[in-house]
Each structure stands twice: as C-alpha cells, then as structure tokens.
Amino acid sequence: xxxxxxxxxxxxxxxxxxxxxxxxxxxxxxxxxxxxxxxxxxxxxxxxxxxxxxxxxxxxxxxxxxxxxxxxxxxxxxxxxxxxxxxxxxxxxxxxxxxxxxxxxxxxxxxxxxxxxxxxxxxxxxxxxxxxxxxxxxxxxxxxxxxxxxxxxxxxxxxxxxxxxxxxxxxxxxxxxxxxxxxxxxxxxxxxxxxxxxxxxxxxxxxxxxxxxxxxxxxxxxxxxxxxxxxxxxxxxxxxxxxxxxxxxxxxxxxxxxxxxxxxxxxxxxxxxxxxxxxxxxxxxxxxxxxxxxxxxxxxxxxxxxxxxxxxxxxxxxxxxxxxxxxxxxxxxxxxxxxxxxxxxxxxxxxxxx
Amino acid sequence: xxxxxxxxxxxxxxxxxxxxxxxxxxxxxxxxxxxxxxxxxxxxxxxxxxxxxxxxxxxxxxxxxxxxxxxxxxxxxxxxxxxxxxxxxxxxxxxxxxxxxxxxxxxxxxxxxxxxxxxxxxxxxxxxxxxxxxxxxxxxxxxxxxxxxxxxxxxxxxxxxxxxxxxxxxxxxxxxxxxxxxxxxxxxxxxxxxxxxxxxxxxxxxxxxxxxxxxxxxxxxxxxxxxxxxxxxxxxxxxxxxxxxxxxxxxxxxxxxxxxxxxxxxxxxxxxxxxxxxxxxxxxxxxxxxxxxxxxxxxxxxxxxxxxxxxxxxxxxxxxxxxxxxxxxxxxxxxxxxxxxxxxxxxxxxxxxx
DNA sequence: CACGGCACGGCAAACGTTTACAAGGCGGCG
DNA sequence: CGCCGCCTTGTAAACGTTTGCCGTGCCGTG
Lengths: 354, 354
Fold this sequence. Notes:
- The structure is a homodimer of 354-residue chains.
- The first copy, chain A, is an alpha/beta fold and 354 residues long.
- Chain A has 3 domains: 9-62, lambda repressor-like DNA-binding domains (434 Repressor (Amino-terminal Domain)); 74-173, 3-Layer(aba) Sandwich (Rossmann fold), CATH 3.40.50; 181-310, Response regulator (Rossmann fold), CATH 3.40.50.
- Chain A is built from 12 helices and 12 strands.
- In chain A, strands 2-1-3-4-5-11 form a 6-stranded parallel β-sheet, sandwiched between helices.
- The model of chain A is unreliable at 1-12 (pLDDT under 50).
- Chain A binds a DNA duplex (30 and 30 nucleotides) through helix 2 and helix 4.
C-alpha cells in the first residue's frame, strides 16, 4: 500500500499531488493527469467531472516542475537587464510579462549592472532552471572573454531547443525587436525644421557607445537632407548625463547662435534646461530644447520637455510575441518599432529665417 | 542497456545529465551526484576529481527542476510588486536580487498593477512553480474576496514550509521589513524647524490610503511636539500627484502665509515647485519646499528638491536576509529601516521668528 | 452473428536528481 | 587469525508528472 492511504481524509493543509486527486476521484493517476492537463486523450464526461470535483475539493495545483521534467518545457523565461531600477527596463519587463501572461509563462528577472561576470552567472542560472527562452534586454558588453563564453553557451542553448530574443543591439543572434535610433533622431530634426528652426545645435553622447554614434549619424543625415548648416561647432558632448548636458549647453551658448537644441537623450536635455534657466534664458521663448527617450522625468523638469517616446513597453510586448512564436516553432520576422513625438512646452514655433 | 551508450562520444551540443557525467567518469550516478551536489556523504579524492573532470568536459549543469523535485527546495522566490516600471519597486527588486544571489536563489517577478485578480493569479502561479518563498512588496488591496482567498492560500503555503516576507503594510502575516512613515514625516518637520521655519504647510495624500493617513499623523504629531501653530488651513490635499500638488499649493497660497511647505511625497512637491515657479515665487528664497521619498525626479525638478530618502534598495536587501534566515529555520526579528534626509536646494535657513 | 474499430481507462516507464540502505574491502585490535 | 567497523561505492526508490501502449467493452456494420 502507499504510505498514506488516509489521503482522502486530510484535505486541510499541505499540498496535494495528482495521486491524491486520483484516489479521491477513484481513478488512476493517468486519468487524473489527462483531465487536469487537457490531454487530447479522451476521457468520459462523467469521470472528468469526478476528477475536477476532487481537484477542486483539494485545491489541487499541478506541480510545474514535475511537469517540466517530462515535457521538457518549464514554462519559464529569463530576462536579463542592465538595471531593473531603471524604468526603461522596467517598462520592457512589464511588456514582456503582459505578453506571456496569457500563455501561462513566468518570468525570471536578473539585473546585471553591466558586470560581465554577473551576466554569465545569471545566464547559467537560467539554464540550470531550464528556462524555455532567454530575453536579452541588456545591450552588448565589450569584454572579449565574456563574448566568447556567452556565445558558446547560447549555441548550446539554442541547439537544445531554447529560444533567444534580443531587444537591443547585441552580439547574440536571435529573434529581434528593433528600434531605429538613427531614424528617430532624424525625425526629431525634421520636426524642429517644420517648426521653423534652421540653426540647430546637438548634444551628443559618449563616442564609445554604439547608440550615441548611431544617433549622431541620424542628426547629421537629417541636417544634410534638409540643407541645414551644422558644422562641428553645433555639436557638443554631454556624455548622456544631466550635468554633462548642462556643460555642453554652456559650450554651445558660447560658440554659436541657435534657435533650437536637440539632445541625444532626455537626461542631457534636462541638464540643458536647468542651465538655461539659471542663465536666465527663456525656454522656449528664446531657445527651444528637445530630447529623446521620454523618460518619466521629462514631464517634470524645469519645463515640460518635448521629446520622442521610445516605446519600451511595446518592445517588451513584441519581444514576448516573438518568443511565443518561436516556441511554437512558427517562424517570425524581426519586428521594427517606431517612436512618436510627444509635444510638451519646450519647443516654440518660429518664423523660419533665411 | 540504456538508450544512448554513445553518450561518452557526443560532447558537442545538447545538454547532459548526471548519467552522462557518471558514465564518462566511470562511476555510478549516485557518486556523481554526491560530488556535484557537495553532499556530506564522503567520496574519495580520486573519484571526486574524475567526476569533476568529466563534468567540466561536458559543461555539465545540474537540472534544478529535478533536484527541486526530490529536495522540495526549488531555490526560487517569487516577488509581487504593484508596478515594476516604478523605480521604487525596481530598487526593491534589485535589493532582493542582490541579497539572494549569493545563496543561489532566483527571482520570479510579477507586476500586478493593483488588480486583485492578477495578483491572485500570480501567487497561484508562484505556488505551481514551487517557489520557496514569496515576497509581497505590493501593499494590501482592499477587495474582501481577494483578501480571503489570499489568506487561505498563504496559510496552505506556510503550512507546507513556504516563507512569506512582507515589505509594506499588508494584511498578510510574515517576516516584515518596516519603514516608519510617521516618524519619517515627523523628522522632516523637525528638520524644517531646525532650519528656522515655524509657519509650515503640509500637502497631504488621498485619505483612503493608509500610508497617507500615517504620514499626516506624523506631521501633526511633530507640529504639536514643537508647539507649532498648524490648523486645518495649513493642510491641503494633493492626492499624491504632481498636478494635485500644484493645486494644493495654490490653495495654501490663498489661505495662509508660510515660510515652508512639506509635501507627503515628492511628486506633489514637484507639482508645488512648478506652481511656485510660474507664480514667480522664488524657491527657496521666498518659500521653502521639502518632499519625501527621494524619487529620481527629485533631483531634476524645477529646483533640486530637499527630501528624505526612503531606502528602497535596503528594504529589498533586508527582505532577502529575512527570507534566507526563515528558509534556514532560524528565527529573526522584523527589521526596521530608516530614511535619511538629502539636502538639495529647495529649503532655506531662516531666522526663526517669534 | 462475428468482427473491426473506437472510446475509455489503467499500467508502467520515463524525465534528472537525491538519498536511505546495503555491500564490499580493508585496516586495526583483541 | 577473526571480527568489528569505517570508508567508499553502488543499487534502487522516490519526488510528481506525462504518455506510449495495452486491454476491455460497446457499438455498428457486413
């Protein structure tokens, strides 16, 4: 006899297994499994009800780990981000979660703080927990040893049926969700142009970051296309930070006479705003300022910032959809997401000169 | 014979099990398990090395699900937050993660958006995935049916050896990390008092939120203690939002003559700042403003806000430590965390009057 | 009336671990 | 020289599922 034949009695605490349900319903474990897991193997309506009733009575919850062991599907996915306290990644995670919730997948979250060692650790841990997919929301690290190890691990993972999704530029291959940074900046420049601005300055980011190069390219491309006169003196490096943005704004002020300034990210734009404020220069009356990203702060800075929203939530959502498709072995194209301009109070319409 | 005796050959792709390691090392699965899991059961140094070598060669990764099945410890914990895109919760999650990383635990994250149904769903899912502990970073929802169901589920969980940790005021019992909101506000009032302020206004939050009541109590208690003259006219409701804060600030302006205003949260303080700015009232020269929470925006608003930092990261960290202790069946007291004042530019020192 | 097929249910193996128990070998002690 | 006990290893059961395969009974059809 099994070691607790009294199982039909105690239905108070403790967690119950399929065996308890089966016994209570007076059927075999196999049958109980079939009804609980929605198997295609037919079960009579009568026994189905008995089982359901029993399961309900015991508040039975199937053990996903056991199920995963035999089906080789854990119904979990791991997501790796650089910093979970950054709303940028928080939004992505939220999108991912909302996207996979309906299909009953769960999310492991790991925040690497850009530490290659930690990143590898976390990925390894994901493997150990048999995740069905891994999402890289973090962007590539440059450490060579890291890259090599990661690539090898990723190969094993995909060979074993694992799915990899990439939500940023990353060395790894996998289903991809793509935000076109170059185009985004170009669009902002065209927007300023439409509003009458011709003498436009640009606050750029650190030159060793891929994304800041790409965004800069978007600026120069649009300027050329529109026949704007922007030389190197129109561009200053603000290192993607608020204080850097303030200083870069100062440089521009000393150097050139502008009607508008575009910052490669919102943080620098906010810094510029602060600087202009303390210099007594009115925004947008005397000078217009625009940013890019639409971070939460953008709305609450010295003056509400006009910027372009990067659809982080949507990126997560699309990532989830890609991931689910891949798990179903459907193939799907990479998806392309675009931002939209959110107009607040920092840009004025002026009479185009020249 | 086992179905793939060729296992010793293929060490390219695919994932390997303990059996493969054992075969390659020429030992039994049990022995391999003992060395890989660091069992206390003795193994000779020689065989230990053989096994390690084999595991290394195959890049063996133990399957945590299988291990969990037999040890009844999944080495996972689930955390429930209200909104993962809110840095407040992001910081908490980061602290938690950092705290459990060393002990090799992983984190399931779920963001409920304050939806009772979703919240129950997620908790149920955590159970199904056999988490060892659940952390409630979200605060209590008032829905009665929800409360009842949750309580019942929680009881089953703890009865089964699960651990519950609570990081905010919540109906659930469990190990608790506690930030004293009342004391925090009182401390801010005392701070303003030290800086010479006697006529102080207060921007309060919605009265149906426990936390805003508690914070208000902190204000009145401190005012009384210091012999400040604060009647109802000194208090306005800003609903915890930026626009609400701006409006409430307006009311106060019409009603009383103040030297300082304390907001129950930073968002309202920022709103007040904006309002004062557009009314041409200088901060801090003509009026001082202080907030509470130290959200990221606080530093970048119209004027850098003096506020009190709620140690969210530390809350997560302490939660992790509590959780690990409970899992080890050590008992631990609830922990009490305190905030610290961060002085920026929005509060002036003045000559105390009267 | 016989037989084929289908609907339904059970048996048992399998997933990858851990671990209680047993067994073998060897050294030490009486 | 015999026996006890320890050190090391192996055998096998167990964790909670799913699922291939088989058996039974019933119904329909020829």
